[in-house]
Amino acid sequence: MGRFHRHDDGTTHEDHDHDVSHAHDLGDHSGYTATATSRVSVLEDIFSENDRIAGENRRDFARHGVRTVNLMSSPGAGKTTLLKRTLAQLAATKRIGILEGDIATSIDADQLEGYGAAVALVNTAAGFGGECHLDAVMVRSGLQRLPLADLELLIIENVGNLVCPAEFNVGEHAKAMVYAVTEGEEKPLKYPVMFRAVDTVVVNKVDLLPHLDFDLDLFLSNLHDVNPTATVIQASARTGAGVDEWCAWLVGQSEA
Amino acid sequence: MHELSLCEAIAATVTKHAGERTAAGVVVRIGHFRQVVPDALSFCWTMLTEGTDLKGCALEIEQVPAVVRCNACGSETTLDVPIMICGACEGDDVTLVSGEEFQVVSLDLSEV
Question: What is the pTM of this model?
Answer without folding.
Answer: 0.83
